[in-house]
Amino acid sequence: MNSLERYDLHMRPNEQFDGAIRWYSPLEEPFQVSGLAWFAQERKYRRLPTSPAQAIPQAVDHLANHTAGGQIRFQSDSSSLSVRVKLRGIAGMAHMPATGQCGVDCYVSAPDTNARWRYVNTTRYDHTLIEYECALYTGWEPTMRNLVLNLPLYQGVEEIWIGLDEGASVMAPPGYASGKKIIIYGTSVTQGGCASRPGMAYSNILSRRIPLEFINLGFSGSGKGEPELAEIISQINDPACLVVDYEGNCVSTELFRKTLPEFIRIYREAHPVTPILVVSRIRYAREELTPHLYQMRMERKQFEQSLVNELREQGDLNIYFFDGSKTLGEDFFECTVDGQHPTDLGFLRMADALEPVLKTLLL
């Protein structure tokens, strides 16, 4: 125990529950794993197919093992909830908490409904370990609840087990509004860097407000709009909407002018009328002090806007542009951990801005 933990009990890791626990695998019914588009076929906690038909960059293949956007959904009347997790690696990022990188957090709502989600707790553990067990709550009234566990944003999960009271009832979660999925392709910001816990990634915030499955395909530093990724993303059935938000990884404006039209063209061949929302990046915190950052962002935003206008003029009335520079508000410089990756405040504002737009597209 370090000195701070001796003085402040709330700074200690979660303790393990010492009551009678039955451990369940989310691979089994009635648990539902969502947010991982190929999970039903492969039964792996991974965001892309294990052996895609198209060759993909090594970095993307590695990052696909990170479980950003993955959720475990179920209902139970258990008075306690614990998780046991085996990660692919330890937490080690310089500017993102271990709770966001490798943790699991929990939300509850009334049974048989997806409304009024309430945050419960986050796994806090010795971040030098790759295996941990934590109690998320104990001693609650044994009444039926709808539960969601958000999986780690920046690490892979080899195994996860859910601990409930011996004799507790376990039921399937309530269904989504439909079988359609909201797919978000993008960067480290999409993946959730640098949220303090998984539930604060903007795709997870939106999933609590819009009763559809969200597929997070943010690849940190590596969402570059390759045609192979467009082909793979096109394989996801029943898309409600595709959000394209990879400007921050585009390498150069010149390359962006080549990749974005081709990415959209490939996706359109497979999904002719699915709404596509092209989102420009959030503002850099220091861009008012560093003019070239502002100029670069404006150049790319203008290209995205003009491309969408051109495609609409050509008859594609289901493609839209969203100005991401406005999402963080007037004090945008207060919303990141390092000038470009949002804090929880930044992610909350992004979700607030995107929610009404997505709801309009989904009508």
TrEMBL record:
Record keywords, A-Z: Hydrolase
Any GO molecular function: hydrolase activity
Entry keyword Hydrolase: yes
One Pfam family cited in the UniProt record for this chain: GxDLY
Tree of life domain: Bacteria
Domain SGNH hydrolase-type esterase: 180-359
Domain SGNH hydrolase-type esterase N-terminal positions: 21-169
EC number(s) reported in the record: 3.1.-.-
Protein name as annotated: SGNH/GDSL hydrolase family protein
Species: Paenibacillus residui
